[in-house]
Amino acid sequence: MVLNYIWIAFILIAFVVGIIRLCMGDVEIVTAMVDSTFSSAKNGFEISLYLTGVLTLWLGIMKVGEAGGSVNLLSRLISPFFSRIFPGIPKGHPAMGSMVMNLSANMLGLDNAATPMGLKAMKEMQELNPDKEKATNAQIMFLVLNTSGLTIVPISIMAYRAQFGAANPADVFIPLLLTTFFSTLAGIIAVAAVQRINLLNRVVIAYLGGLSLLVASILYGAGHLPAESIKTYSTVASSVILLSVITGFVGLAAYRRVNVYDAFIEGAKDGFNTAIKIIPFLIAILVAVGLFRASGALDFIIECIRWIFSLFGTDTSFVDALPTAFMKPLSGSGARGFMLEAMTTYGADSFVGRLSCLFQGAADTTFYILAVYFGSVGIKDTRHAVACGLTADLAGIVAAILIGYLFFG
Fold first, then answer.
1. Does 193 have pLDDT greater than 90?
2. Over the range 346-364, which residues count as b (16 or more CB within 10 Å of their CB) and which as e?
3. 3-state DSSP assignment of residue 246
4. Exposed (0-12), middle (13-18) or buried (19+): which is 24, by Cβ within 10 Å?
5. Of 40, 101, 259, 400, which has the fewest CB atoms closer than 10 Å, so is most exposed?
C-alpha cells in the first residue's frame, strides 16, 4: 500500500512539475520525460536479466550452505545472544529457531528467503501473545532487528554494481558491514532502553563488545592508512571473505557427504525464479523514479538540501545520494531505483554511486516490514516499533555518510 502511494505521488509530482516547466517555455521537458520512461523500462529489464545469473549462483551457494549445515552452525552461534535480548520467549520455543534462521538469511543478503521464515517466527510469537492486537516486546525487538538490515554478504548490491560496470563490485563489502553494524546496534539499544532489557549481561556484552571491538579496530586501521590503501585493503579483504564463504559452505557440505551439485542446482532454480519475478516491480519503480528525476523535481529537492548544508561550510558531495536514504524506510524497491539511478548518472565507482549503495544496505524498509510482519498476525497496536525502527534507520544514514567519506571520500 505504501509503495502504491509513493508510485502515484512520483508520477503526479513529475507531471505537475513538467507542466509548470512547459508553461515557463521549456518545450523539451515533455520529450525528456517521455524518453525517460522508455529508457527506464529498458534498464529495468536488462538489470533483471543480469541478476538472473548472479542470484542463480548465490542462491545455489546458500542452498549448499543450508544442506551442509553451515547456516545451522551460524544459527547455533547466535542463539545464546538471542535468548538474552528476547527474555519473553521460553527457552527452546520454536519461535527462537525461526528468528535465528530469518536473521541469518538477512545477514547473508537473502531477502526473499528471509521473509517466509520471518513470518513464521512472527506467527509463533503471536501464540505467546495475550493481547492479539498489541505487539509484544519480543515481536518489536524482532521487527527492529529486521529493519536495521544487518548484512554480512550484500549479494544483490554487489550484483547491481557489477551490472553497472564497477571495477570491483565487492569494494563496498567492508563499508556496508560497518554501516549495518551501527544501524543494528542503534536499534538494539533503542528497543532495550524502552523495554528495560539488561544489555550489561555477560553474554550480551561478550557478543556486542566483541563485535564493537572488531569494528573499532577496522575503523582505527582505516583511519591510519592513506586513501588509496584503504580501497586496496577493503577490496582484498572483501574478496577473501567472499571466497572463504563459498569455500567453507562447499567444504563442509562435502565433508558431510552432501550431494553438493544437486543442492546447488536446487537453490539455483530459486534464484532464477526470483529474478524473473522482480522484473515488473523493478520496471515500475524505475519508470516512476526516472520521470521524477527527468521532470526536475528531484533536482529541486536536492539543491535545497545542498544549500542548507553549504551554509555551514560542509562538504555537500553526499547530498546527491540522499534520495536513496530518504526512500529506504518507505520502499526497498523505491530506494533500489534511486540507487540504480545514482549509478547510472554518476557511475558505479563514483562517490555518489558507492554512497547510494551504502544507504541501500544501511537499513531495511521499516514501514513495509512493519505492515507485512505485523499485518500477517493481525497486530494493530505497534507501540514503540516505528520509533525504534526509524532510530536504527537514522543511525544507518549517519554511519553510511561518515564511513563513505572514510573509505571513498
1. yes
2. bebbbbbbbbbbbbbbbbb
3. helix
4. exposed
5. 259
Residue 110, all three cell numbers: 537473502
Nearest to 290 by CA among 42, 22, 24: 42
Q: Where are the alpha helices (DSSP H) in 164-259?
A: 173-195, 202-223, 227-255
Phi-psi map region of 126: left, alpha, beta (phi>0 left; psi -120 to 50 alpha): alpha
Q: What one-letter code names the amino acid at 282?
A: L
| Count of helix runs (H) and strand runs (E) in the chain | 18, 0
- DSSP H helical segments within 69-133, as ranges? 70-85, 94-107, 111-126
Q: Cα separations (Å) of 264 from 40, 275, 324, 331?
A: 33, 16, 33, 31
Measured distance CA(401)–CA(215) in Å, rounded: 16
3-state DSSP call for residue 92? coil
In this prediction, residue 120 has a pLDDT band, given cuts at 50, 70 and 90, of confident
The answer to whether 45 and 279 have CB atoms below 8 angstroms apart is: yes
Report, as an integer, the average pLDDT of 57-86. Answer: 79
Residue 315 is placed in which grid cell? 562538504
How far apart CA 120 and CA 104 sit, in angstroms, is 14
Tell me the sheet residues that pair with 134. Answer: 381
pLDDT, average across residues 75-88: 80
Of 202, 271, 263, residue with least CA distance to 68: 263
d(C-alpha 121, C-alpha 86), whole Å: 13
Distance of CA 328 to the CA centre of its chain: 8
Instruction: Locate 44 and state its grid cell.
Output: 529495468
Rounded mean pLDDT of 26-32? 86
Instruction: Please tell me the total number of residues recorded for the chain in this structure.
Output: 409
Q: What gap in Å lies between CA 361 and CA 348, rounded to an integer?
A: 15
The residue that leads in pLDDT, 141 or 97, is 141
Q: 108 φ, ψ to 5°?
A: -90, 5
- 318 contacts 312 by C-beta, under 8 angstroms: no
Residue of 325, 118, 165, 144 lying closest to 110 (CA atoms): 118
Q: What is the pLDDT of residue 268?
A: 82
Residue type for position 119: L
Evaluate whether 302 touches 318 at the Cβ level (below 8 Å).
no
Location of C-alpha cell 547456516:
71
**How far is 380 from 386, CA to CA, in rounded Å?**
12
